Amino acid sequence: MQNLLAFGRTVFDLEVGGIARVDPATDLYRIEAINGDRADLEPGTELALSDTYCRTVVDNASGDTVPKPTEISPAAGGLPEHPSADDHDVRTYLGTCIPIEGDLDRVFFFTSSDPSAGSFSERERTFLRLMGQWLKDELERRRHGRLLRDLYETTGDPQASFSAKVERLLELGCERFGLDMAGLNHLPAWDGAFKLETGIGLGVDPGEELWTDPSEGCFCRQTITADAPVEMTDASESGWADDRIHQQLGLTSYLGTKVRAARRRTERSGSVARSRASVRSRRPSARSSN
């Protein structure tokens, strides 16, 4: 990352290059990497996202692709009244948003305390966007690699019990998809209710049984008959809104798949979900759940 940032500073003739994790929902802005002379910024430094020019970049982002870079400078129409201009002596800013699947998004930016002589060219903007796409691919590759290592370590641990391994896999699923509940349900009889075998985030005490009976075509009932994973971004805006699982447990976002025990000929469904309190609205294919 340092080589990439140093290269960008040279290409765009700006003093500082940086990468930061951002979360608009919590106004989080945390420096992940910085290159250049900014004594007030180092990896781990946290600021309010709303107090940075990067908030404009995040507001301009949409979907899963790296958007067209945003320029903020006198040459691009003047500097807005903003804490970044006053507190951090930023007179030129060029940045873009890096959407990361299953993780906090990043902003990839370059700044200078000197006003730029002119607006950045279309070629320079395209180049930054290509750099951002490479960075997105690299960050997602690293994240995927860490997830695979965690999966191998979990399933290959000879000291862990089967139930402990399942619980850890559910935790990894919640982390990977950005959801807060997960479970492995058993279906003893085809037209009966589902029994929770292992779950996290569901508020079930050890030894307590949880039986659920979703309606036809909803939640685990649909998962158990489907050949591919089932997903739902927001149950409240779908035909699942009247289902008792949505009403009683407040499940909204859902992603689940069927697990078949070949010898015993019984069905199970593994799923991750999110409660009614917070619904996934971006990148539904990666964040929805059942």
Verbal overview:
The structure is a single chain. With 290 residues, the protein is of the alpha+beta class. It folds into two domains: 2-148, Beta-Lactamase (2-Layer Sandwich), CATH 3.30.450; 166-287, GAF domain (Beta-Lactamase, 2-Layer Sandwich), CATH 3.30.450.40. Helices cover 30% and strands 27% of the residues. It has eight helices and twelve strands. The strands form two sheets. It has a six-stranded antiparallel sheet with strand order 3-2-1-6-5-4. A six-stranded antiparallel sheet has the order 9-8-7-12-11-10. Strand 1 and strand 2 form a beta hairpin. Helix 4 (122-155) runs antiparallel to helix 5. The protein is elongated. The two termini are 36 Å apart. Residues 276-290 have low confidence and may be disordered.
Annotation keywords:
single chain, 290 residues, alpha+beta, Beta-Lactamase, six-stranded antiparallel beta sheet, elongated, disordered C terminus
Give the name of the CATH superfamily of the largest domain.
GAF domain
CATH architecture descriptor name of the largest domain: 2-Layer Sandwich
Helix content: 25-40%
Structural class based on helices, strands and sheet pairing: alpha+beta
**CATH class annotation of the largest domain:** Alpha Beta
C-alpha Rg (nearest Å): 23 Å
Name the helix and strand elements from N-terminus to C-terminus, one letter apiece.
Answer: HEEEHEHEEHHEEEHEHEEH
**What is the domain total for the residues?**
2
Question: What summary fits the major beta sheet?
Answer: 6 strands, antiparallel
Structure annotation, total helices:
8
- Overall mean pLDDT stands at 83
Low confidence ranges? 276-290
What shape does the CA trace take? Answer: elongated
Count of individual beta strands: 12
End-to-end distance, in Å? 36 Å
CATH topology of the largest domain: Beta-Lactamase
- Spatial strand arrangement across the major sheet: 3-2-1-6-5-4
Q: Please indicate the percent range of residues in DSSP E strands (runs of 2 or more).
A: 25-35%
